[in-house]
Amino acid sequence: MLRTPMLGRNHAKTSGFSILAKQVWGALRSHRLRPERLCSQVPCAQRRNNALHPLWKGPASKPGGSRQSPINIRWRDSVYDPGLPPLRVSYDAAACRYAWNTGYLFQVEFDDAIEGAGISGGPLENHYRLKQFHFHWGAVNEWGSEHTVEDRVYPAELGSHHEALQTLVDVLPEIKHKDARVALGPFEPSCLLPTCRDYWTYPGSLTTPPLTESVTWIIQKKPIEVAANQLAAFRTLLFTALGEEEKTMVNNYRPLQPLMNRKLRASFQATEGGTGS
Ligand SMILES: [Zn+2]
């Protein structure tokens, strides 16, 4: 899955707004995990990643809490909450600042000092301004998303529509190496969102260290469509800085975490096979 969480900051709390992407061209869409790959342990990540990224080697990478992310979203764990209001999303294209290679993923930064633009409604008690959004993807189209739906993993995870996505894909060659950044003109991120605004929500955490348990996750039910060549462009980025031995930026997602005692709410009534995947 191309999943693009859009993170909005509001005091110490974060809203993680996430969209799964499916591949449009070619036979592969979402891929059902075999039961043996559906695990929440680090060794699973090690199997899917041939080497653990340095990000996961420090003390801050040790989870300790009871509301970690990502999770596998299952219909049987999900409860329709008719009290969930629709999301209100309004972003400001002028607030877009730059795109950069963080050495772990590709991220687009916004000026969050701009009043008004952001996300509210849904499960959110406050208004959240958009600070950044970023992408996770796999080495191949069979996996890549952080969240999964009904054991289905998508080639990437992000928030976006593929024509708009092309604007971002076009700057990737300029930020091939770690810490490279490129200024980005006005960019309206809501054009990356699916038209259908059905979503799941649950209390979770950041999926990178320090794994802080302060995120209200909102996962769009409908995946967005991404072309195979756009996915391929993401895989031309590097984890490594200029002059270092090149390591391709792939499999930059955290393995699944257990739901534990959490409530997973849906803004829509479940229908058989209605995941849109
Ligand atoms: Zn993320």
From TrEMBL:
GO molecular function: carbonate dehydratase activity; zinc ion binding
Range of residues in the leader sequence: none
Domain of life (superkingdom): Eukaryota
Entry-linked Pfam families: Carb_anhydrase
GO CC, any one term: mitochondrion
Residue ranges annotated for the Alpha-carbonic anhydrase domain, each copy included: 44-268
InterPro entries named among the record's database cross-references: CA_dom, CA_dom_sf, Carbonic_anhydrase_a-class
SMART domains: Carb_anhydrase
Family according to the record: Belongs to the alpha-carbonic anhydrase family.
Name the UniProt record assigns to this protein: Carbonic anhydrase 5A
Organism whose genome encodes this protein: Myotis myotis (Greater mouse-eared bat)
